[in-house]
Specification:
With about 190 residues, the chain is mainly alpha-helical. The protein has one domain. It is built from nine helices and no strands. Helix 2 packs antiparallel against helix 3 and helix 3 crosses helix 6. The termini are far apart.
Amino acid sequence: MRFVVLYARSRGIPAALAAMVVSVAALLALARVSDSTLYFGLIAMAIATGAWGSGLAGDDPELDRTASIRWPVRRAAHLLLATAAAAGAVLALWSTVDPPLLPAGVVWRDVAGLSGLTALGATVLGGRLAWAPPLGWAAILLLVPPDPTGALPVVTWLAQPAGSTAAMITAVVLGVAGLVCYAGFGPRPARW
């Protein structure tokens, strides 16, 4: 049990959980008075997954690599638990709204894809910038309207309805790619 507490503190998990809940609650309050609840929902999910992105890298990833423990398993477990926490926070807070801002299936799909983007961000950019890919992709939707035809369902997969095959495939590919890359390679060491 002591290892779990130390690991959580070293990865900033308590602060990430607090930031996730506060930001999702603030965006929920804004969504209640807005006509565009979809965009607030998407930004809330992106912030929820980006909030724990910095915790995907420890203070010294080079030191982590020298430890004689199985990091791929721990990294995969960390990513899966963070994904579940982000989806759980969004669903728990949104259950207070009637009707919910987005269906539960869409929330799980979008959070899984955004978590993959966060993990890819940690692998390529490092923990400090892991939040940028999910928030950047969600920001694209402010400029590109969701369109279920052509190549746009892949770009606007976050805003597609629950039955969209292209959105599901995109989310699964991003989620699995992020999980495999992050678990296998780990976070990029900070060089600044």
